[in-house]
Write a structure and sequence with these properties.
The complex is a heterodimer of chains A (266) and B (363). Chain A is mainly α. Chain A is 79% helix and 0% strand. Chain A has a domain at 37-155 and 190-252: MetI-like (MetI-like fold). Chain B has helices at 39-47, 93-103, 108-121, 137-150, 167-181, 193-199, 217-222, 227-233, 335-341, and strands at 6-12, 17-23, 28-32, 54-59, 62-65, 78-81, 155-159, 186-189, 202-207, 210-216, 236-244, 253-256, 262-267, 278-283, 288-291, 300-313, 316-323, 328-333, 348-354, 359-362. In chain B, helix 2 packs across helix 3 and helix 2 (93-103) packs parallel to helix 4 (137-150). Chain B starts with 5 loop residues before the first strand and ends with a strand. Classes of the chains: A mainly alpha (266), B alpha+beta (363).
């Protein structure tokens, strides 16, 4: 269907809006010592931070998916006050200041924390380990996954699930072969959002996991540390994060475009 | 082929539905009724989507819902074909048809084989590898039928299966249904009398959450229990009290309408009127002529009426009118006479119908 053309002032305003985003990125592109980027990125500190980030973010993404999926499914079926209550709890970490998130994790799971002291007694230390990084990232990233999948589940036409049930599919089979494939794009979008959020995680990680090179010092922490002493290195690492973030954001849309070209939309 | 009976004797309180419906094994029963009559509730009770608050639902003599236990939909062996095909967009046509067989734990190759057999039966084996999005609505509905039958359901529920199809697709689907439903136990909700005549052997009329009438399609449509059924049968239906006819013609009877008008007609052979009791005058819209003033000639019934609507029906126009007493009647006339008489909504007219074309039945 053809749409009415947008008024010219909208185009002008949109250009201004996009400029606000584009100019700082250009600023980095101008300032960055392009020739030195390969060397800067192969320093021990940089590669360690990069691998630590990729490893922990992958784990956090998977944890957010495994733990977030049941929450999203439950949330999509709730109505009224209970839905408000559960949703508020589930998405709270999304709007919580990250440093507060790190603090609540520390006082709960840290060595002297409510739960942590028992774990410590059993010989399990979480605070200031790589596990703490994963927990901090999962804590702040899971709401992004839940929100994305819950929305898709809510708008899913229940008639398909009912049809599957009358064909003899048990609730688990319906979930596995109908519901999840139908909300597949949203699951993928939620996973990339969770990964991207984990990748940028700073405050909660610093407060709960600290900044130990190779153990808890992820990319954002490394960038923060280097920004005064070795600006070029910080800029090179920033470039990596920008590229990763851009790829992650383009991924779900790209997959959707491929899918619809195959004519797989019901 | 499995052909279990269905017996619903159940109450759903929130919907104010109390139903007692039985379907003999191997028969197709049409379910009709206005919106909110309880048609979906009836299908939901059999499929297992709804639980009765009281009473039981039996399939093949086995209780699937009752005070003690409720069998969930996926363990009921009830096939459903709805108005929309509801094919799974992420599965190819053949995998859609194999879905139910696979869900029962049948090996993939065997299920695939079964799906191909069903697709051949609906004439679409050539489309097995397609995605549902690449099918026409008519093709998709055929695939949905194949998918429902692939699991060999004990009973089949059809919920207006032709309503979303265009005329050509609906008529070829109707032929296919007649072929594929033979010998099965089927409950079919429809709004189309053609479906009732071609696919069902008997019918159930629901209104206000209760069974208003049931019996052979012929008998139910011949003596419509409500205005809704009369419309379905394409009949005008005027209700009143039977009186002896004042007419000279022998065997004539009359129905005295509330506003004092009398309708004279021929008593029904099976269910003739009883004088002093409620009776119906039935006649086809094609038998009604429309005039601006009372026409001469006897024996004729005439009613003063006001036009409430004009509805094109092929080469004719159906004139809907309301009689002085509030009852409704319609007449089929040519577009030319609409013009000649200057008919429009609100025109005061006189409807006339010959006594010989009116059937009087007991109500």
């Amino acid at each position: 269907m053809t749409r009415t053309p947008l008024p010219a002032w909208v185009l002008v305003a949109a250009t201004v809006g996009l400029t606000v985003v584009a100019v700082p990125l250009l600023g980095l592109a101008v300032r960055i010592p392009w020739a030195d980027v390969p060397t800067l990125l192969t320093s021990t500190a940089a590669t360690q931070a990069l691998w630590l980030s990729l490893r922990t973010c992958t784990l956090s993404m998977l944890l957010a998916t495994v733990l977030g999926l049941p929450v999203a499914m439950l949330l999509a079926r709730l109505e009224g006050r209970r839905a408000v209550l559960v949703r508020t709890l589930a998405v709270l970490p999304m709007v919580l200041p990250p440093v507060v998130a790190g603090l609540v994790l520390l006082v709960t799971l840290g060595r002297r924390g409510v739960v942590g002291q028992h774990l410590a007694a059993a010989g399990i230390e979480i605070g200031f380990t790589t596990a703490a990084v994963v927990i901090a990232q999962t804590f702040v990233a899971m709401p992004f996954f839940i929100v994305s999948v819950e929305g898709a589940l809510r708008t899913l036409d229940p008639a398909y699930e009912v049809a599957a049930a009358t064909l003899g599919a048990s609730p688990t089979t319906v979930l596995r072969r109908v519901t999840l494939p139908m909300v597949g794009p949203a699951v993928l979008a939620g996973m990339t959002m969770a990964f991207a959020r984990s990748l940028g995680e700073f405050g909660a990680t610093l407060a709960f996991a600290g900044s130990l090179q190779g153990t808890t010092r992820t990319m954002p922490l490394e960038i923060y540390l280097q920004r005064e002493t070795d600006t070029d290195s910080a800029l090179a690492l920033s470039l990596v994060l920008i590229v990763l973030a851009a790829v992650l954001m383009a991924l779900p849309a790209g997959v959707r475009a491929l899918g619809s070209r195959g004519g797989r939309v019901a | 082929m499995s052909a279990s009976s269905i017996a619903v004797d159940a109450t759903v309180t929130v919907r104010d539905v109390v139903l007692d419906v039985e379907v003999e094994g191997g028969h197709t029963v049409g379910v009709v009724g206005p919106n909110g009559a309880g048609k979906s509730t009836l299908l939901g009770l059999v499929s297992g989507e709804l639980r009765p608050d009281a009473g039981t639902v039996r399939i093949g003599g086995q209780e699937v819902a009752g005070p003690r236990r409720v069998v969930p939909p996926h363990r009921r062996s009830v096939g459903v074909l709805a108005q929309r095909p509801l094919l799974f967009g992420h599965l190819r046509v053949v995998d859609n048809v194999a879905f139910g067989v696979r869900a029962r734990g049948v090996a993939k190759a065997v299920a695939h084989q079964r799906a191909m057999t069903e697709l051949e039966a609906v004439g679409l084996a050539g489309l097995a590898g397609r995605w549902p999005a690449a099918l026409s609505v008519g093709q998709a509905q055929r695939v949905a039928l194949a998918r429902a039958l692939a699991t060999d359901p004990a009973v089949l529920l059809l919920d207006e299966p032709l309503a979303a199809l265009d005329v050509a697709a609906a008529s070829s689907m109707r032929v296919l249904l007649a072929e594929r439903l033979a010998g099965r136990t089927v409950l079919m909700v429809t709004h189309d009398p053609l479906d009732l005549w071609t696919l069902a052997s008997s019918m159930v009329v629901l209104e206000g959450g209760r069974v208003l009438d049931h019996g052979s399609t012929e008998s139910v449509l011949a003596r419509p229990a409500s205005r809704f059924v009369a419309d379905l049968a394409g009949l005008n239906r005027l209700a009143g009290v039977a009186v002896e006819s004042g007419s000279a013609v022998e065997d004539d009877h009359a129905v005295h309408l509330a506003d004092g008008v009398e309708v004279t007609g021929v008593p029904d052979e099976v269910a003739g009127p009883v004088v002093g009791q409620e009776a119906l005058a039935l006649f086809e819209p094609a038998a009604v002529s429309v005039h601006l003033s009372a026409p001469g000639g006897r024996p004729r019934n005439t009613f003063g009426a006001e036009v409430t609507g004009l509805e094109p029906r092929g080469a004719l126009v159906r004139v809907h009118a309301v009689l002085a007493g509030g009852q409704r009647a319609s007449a089929d006339v040519t577009p030319r006479s609409i013009g000649a008489l200057g008919l429009t909504v609100g025109t005061a007219v006189v409807l006339a119908v010959k006594a010989a074309q009116v059937r009087i039945v007991r109500h």
